[in-house]
Amino acid sequence: MKNELKKILERCLVGQNFDCLSLGVINFAKSSFFCLEHLPSSFSKSDRKDSIYYDLASLTKPLTLGATYCKEPDLFHKNDNLTFLLEHRGGLPAWGRLSKHDWRAQVLSFGISDSETKYSDFSALRLMLELEKKLGKEFLSLMPSYFDKETFFWKDLKDSNITPYVGFRNGRPIRGQVHDDNAFVINEFCTHAGLFSTVSGLCKTLLNLEKKYSLIKVMESSFLKRKGGGRFLKGWDTINPMEMDKTLAGFGCSPHTFGHLGFTGTSTWIDCEKRLGIVILTNATKNFWFERSGLNDIRRSIGSFVWKNYHQF
Q1: Domain of residue 34, residue span
Q2: How far is CA 231 from CA 8, 117, 124, 211, in A?
């Protein structure tokens, strides 16, 4: 299976506008995983001890906020507004420019109400602020119990040379800094973007969430209790059962599959029934961000292969 996947990775990168692709396949039933990478020659082993570190972009949301639901679901059961924010149906704007000094006031200025789903960075930031008020702690202090040592806040990155280029800011290449402009301007830990990780670190972080907080059990229960057709569930994205052939998770996953996408070309999907997970990390925004068909073909190709052959993982 690994050799087959290696060939898929090599084939998928031909003609792409980016050059780094790392894959992790997680078997939650066995608490195991394996990783494969296809990297340019510029990333020699002498530059790094293990893997390279990717900007996870919006995977930060479920790894912080979705994980908080797993840890402390009662916080959300007792406060509908927190659930609205967690599931991107709190009526907040999708995005906007934030200032370094006033961003909290900007985000807190919006009312919260049960609304149609609108994927929103502001919802993620607002939920962080509401949870900090409720718990009386900075949000980052809630995280270390399950983060692997190779998954961390971007400001803690020691060496930019172990990260790929992910785009441009003010005409200069971005490397070793968060790609998201608001996260860069805020320059503090936040929950809409800002985590970096190796592929193995992210696999281990997800396994930690399963071991410590029963991630799959929590999500399976949430699927069974789900009401309505909202896209997001307890901080995670889900697939549309009516469009299984189009899902970016890849054809062949079960309806009870959850995950998330990241703007820099990252994604993770976990199938509750197969108890299998996929992590795909790329630097898809290296040269430009507006063309996604190649990246999405990669996501579908890898996902479909893994789900089809899940018994062999």
Answers
A1: 1-312
A2: 30, 7, 15, 26
For the chain, the domain total comes to 1
pLDDT per position in the chain (313 positions), as tens?
Answer: 889 999 999 988 899 999 999 999 999 999 999 999 999 887 766 555 568 999 999 999 999 999 999 999 999 998 999 999 999 999 999 989 999 999 999 999 999 999 999 999 999 999 999 999 999 999 988 777 899 999 999 999 998 889 999 999 999 999 999 999 999 999 999 999 999 999 999 999 999 999 999 999 999 999 999 987 789 999 999 999 889 989 999 999 999 999 999 999 999 999 999 999 999 999 999 998 888 899 999 999 999 999 999 988 8
pTM given for the model: 0.96
Of the candidates 138, 152, 155, 226, the residue with the CA atom closest to the CA atom of residue 195: 152
DSSP secondary structure letters along 142-191 = GSTTT--TTEEEGGG-S-GGGS----EETTEE--SS-S-HHHHHH-S--S
| Torsion over CA: 272, 191, 104, 107 (sign) | negative
Q: What is the CATH number of the domain that holds 24?
A: 3.40.710.10
